[in-house]
Amino acid sequence: MSTVTDYIGRTVDLQALQGAKQFGDTLLQQTLVGETNRGLIIAGVQKLAQRVTIEFFTDVGSITYEPTRGTAFMPSLRQGRLRTALEVEQAFRSAVIDIKRTLRQQELDTDPDDERIDEIELISIVLSGDTVILRFRVISLAGDERAVLFPLMTTLEGIS
Amino acid sequence: MSIEITDLSTLDPDLVEQLQEELAERLQEAHPTLDLKSGVLRDLLLNLSAILEAKNQTETDRIRRSASLAEIEADPSLADDDAVDNVMSNYRITRQEGEAATGQVTIIVSTNTTTTIAAGAIFEADGKQFTADTVFVAKAEPENVQATTDRLMQALSDGSFAFVISVTASEVGAESMLKKDTLLTPETPPLNFVKALATNDFTGGVDTETNQEILTRMQEGIAAQALSNRVNMTALLRAHEDFSSYVASSIIGYGDAEMLRDARLIAPISVGGRVDWYLRTALQAYRIGVTVTATLIEKTTDNRGIWQFGIGRDVLPGFYEVASIRPTTSGEFSGTYPIEEEIRSNDLTGDGFIPDVQTVEEGAYSRFQAAVVRFKDTDTATNSLTVNSSTKQYSVELRGQPLIKDLQEYLSSRDIRNYAGDLLVKAPVPCFVRLSFEIERPAGNTDEIDEDAIKVALADEVNAVSFTGRLPASSLSDVVHNFLKNDVAVSAIDMLGRIRRPDATTAWIRSSEVLVVPSEPDKMVTAKTVQFFLDPEDIGLSIVTVGEPQV
Predict the structure, then answer these.
(1) pLDDT, tens digit, for every residue of A77-117?
(2) Cα B288 to Cα B181: distance, rounded to the nearest angstrom
(3) Nearest to B51 among A32, A50, A65 (CB)
(4) Neighbouring C-alpha atoms within 13 Å toward the C-beta of A39
(5) What pLDDT band is residue A157 in, cutting at 50, 70 and 90?
(6) Residue B408 and residue B275 in contact, taking contact as beta carbons nearer than 8 Å
(7) How far apart are CA B12 and CA A64, in angstroms?
């Protein structure tokens, strides 16, 4: 478990996708306040992974004044345009280009390497009935040298 | 335009982005450990805050602009109506609300059985609705016509019967100003209904004043409102509820070549103290129909006769001309008996201040003008009639401008008029324009061309020309081209103008380039006194297909 000292020198974001574990599959909860916490802050590669996930699931054009945010992956899926694994892969790789471009536009040179995107690797695609299971790996510029900072419980008032 | 923003997607994107960066910077300074470049905090906090802040700033900006005369002048369309009204109230100017057009409708039925038109009965014309002002009961016998809403049926030559009712447009605005003879359709036709048509041009339909219009009025009306110099005089009218919507104005006074009333001395000098104010009060020449009683004054060898009737100064004050004379019993509303002679005069009787008008020319188109008209009735046999005794009723149509009498009375009133001189209100000297041209389109082009819309737009263009004395064909071509596309072209526009001078003579002008009013100040005909009038019916438009040459 991380402590406050691990976060020194870091900038934090709120955790919006809660419930992740170090190992194994977990269904994430989209919430800012969990059943056992009043909000969590995150930094490091957790923050990066969350950004990637949010960008991936955001429909491009759905944020009124940020029309280039998000990807076309989910709209394509909902519209039934992805019927084979190859089509899913093509859509995913297209989305990766958009995600990397967006994140790199937001990054600063002074950001820690484990918060900067390097690559998003597709591990596997499984089509089963009306379900698509994608496994992908988010790699930061820190590579394997990243230190995983686990979410830190905080009160919203004490966020700073 | 409303100050309040009700749709958050209509904000200025640049403003939202700028505010988002501003908020991020301020928040970062206060909370350095927050990551505000991207992520949840930015999406949920900064983005939404920036949108709401942009909304507030935009609304504040609108309020500020609406409260500033300079900003309203810069862009009246952006200002909120209520805020503009508040600013205008500082100058004692109130927005003029729209008014519904009113007029009379002639209803023709096939039999003379008593016919009732219910109060509020709906008639439609030109896409607008009109309602009967009250219940009207049309009766065949004069002795049965007792109530003010009773109407006497008049027999028409085709065996049908006509009576007149008054109606009011359901909507306010100028679009409901029907022209004389426009057909109306009743929602519920009365018994034996044949047709209904506008008896006269409708009047009174006025659009609610726009910010641009109220601003123009403010600029013209902010000066002292008095019969002094031209600016003050214009301000006086613009501030008056009944007269403020006049179309064009030209003030002729001391030193102007067109001013004849102050230069009657033997010596060629002007003494001043006289003003001729030419006011165009309606875009198109106003048409009214009146019933006159004519007297037979001469029998002709073909067993017909010359008849005479008078037009008093109050029938249509300042009228331009008699457009047609027809028997009242005619069901066919076209054609006219030929006018043999028209003798104009001045009727300077009555109380109150009377301007110094000594000749017919000086009083032409003023409220003091009267006339005697002689015409030949080519239908009525006169062998059994008596000269100077036999009379007959005729339906006469006059063309002119409204409000001339009201303007004269207002400007001559003791409190308003200048104590050092006199002012004579006149309708502008008319130049009735006819246009003819062709629209050429290549073979195979099937684009729809809205001829009626083109004619209305052309009439609006011509009738809006101020006292410039020039009507360029290029401006008319420009109007027509707004309705055309895909290689459709306009031929040269033949413009023909008929100026009826104050001395009753006619001047014809014609051009396909620029129609120019002649300079005849000794006849009170110059660019300062003449206005162009164009009725859409006086536009000859034909569409021709042009074959492509074989190559």
Answers:
(1) 888 888 899 999 999 999 999 999 999 999 999 899 999 99
(2) 10
(3) A65
(4) 14
(5) very low
(6) no
(7) 11
pLDDT averaged over every residue in chain B? 89
pLDDT in tens, B13-55: 999 999 999 999 999 999 888 988 888 999 888 999 999 999 9
Q: Specify the DSSP class assigned to residue B45.
A: I
Please tell me the class of the A4-153 domain: alpha beta
| Closest CA relative to residue B379, chosen from B318, B427, B336 | B336
Does the pLDDT value for residue B306 go beyond 90?
Answer: yes
Domain boundaries of chain B, sorted by first residue: 8-89, 100-198, 211-264, 286-426, 429-546
**Distance, first Cα to last Cα, chain A:** 20
B10 touches chain A (CB under 8 A): no
pTM: 0.63
Alpha-carbon distance of A105 to A97, in angstroms, equals: 12
pLDDT digits (tens, 9 = 90+) for B279-299: 999 888 888 888 899 999 999
Which residues of B, range 336-395, sit inside 8 Å of A by Cβ? none
Kindly state the DSSP code that residue B504 receives in the 8-state scheme.
Answer: S
Closest CA to B412 of B357, B360, B332: B357
- Report how many Cβ contacts below 8 Å link chain A to chain B: 59
Among chain A, residues having any CB pair with chain B shorter than 8 Å are: 7, 10-16, 32, 43, 47, 50-51, 54, 63-66, 102-103, 106-108, 159-160
Question: Using CA atoms, how far apart are residues B64 and B55, in angstroms rounded to an integer?
Answer: 14
Burial class (CB within 10 angstroms; exposed 0-12, middle 13-18, buried 19+) of B132: buried
